[in-house]
């Protein structure tokens, strides 16, 4: 039913389809970035991007809230028993350095080329998950203050930039002339670790209560 409804909507679009691409091309110079997608996400529709980051954080809290109360504060995900000579452990040692370089590069070029914090954070989270799936590292306890600080640092920095715009440019999430790109980079740098942690922890799942008594690694 959903597929049929989407097909009807797509086929019912006027030809040519309405687009705001010319308006973006005309006004993106005010954002001082070269990538039109970045200009839209952090310039013209920055409030949407802020809400996306907040929604992801609430989704993670929702996942953490599923187990019993006695599990709150524990480590998320299943305890892994690694095979030090297995292919997974080998991959977890070889791939993460390459993935970190690729993810960081995709994040850095996002201001002027295709890429950005969401794409880069996805790659970094995948590398982190690979290491934990191989049993080479364990997830942090969700009660750690540094972890909670990093999870909220991105949205709080985004809101702070929005308040700066309200004071200096007359609107929330507006950018004063000459400071648009630096403020956009501040938001990107602040959201990068937050998104990496949120994506990785959300896929790990609920906090565990610990292995049953007498459960030992083989």
Structure commentary:
There is one protein chain. The protein has 218 residues and is mostly helical. It has 8 helices and no strands.
What is the strand and helix layout of this fold?
Blueprint: H1 2-11, H2 21-27, H3 36-44, H4 46-64, H5 87-108, H6 117-133, H7 145-168, H8 180-204
Helix pairs in contact: 3-4, 4-7, 4-8, 5-6, 6-8, 7-8
Jot down its keywords.
single chain; 218 residues; mainly alpha; 8 helices; 61% helix
Report the biggest beta sheet as strand number plus sense, adding barrel if it closes: none
Binned strand content:
under 5%
Structural class: mainly alpha
Number of helices, where a helix is a run of at least 4 consecutive DSSP H or I residues: 8
**H/E series:** HHHHHHHH
Compute the number of strand runs: 0
Arithmetic mean pLDDT:
87
Query: Which overall shape is indicated by the principal axes computed on the Cα atoms?
Result: globular
Q: Stretches where pLDDT falls below 50 for ≥5 residues? A: 212-218
Short description, anyone?
The chain has 218 residues and is mainly alpha-helical. Helices cover 61% and strands 0% of the residues.
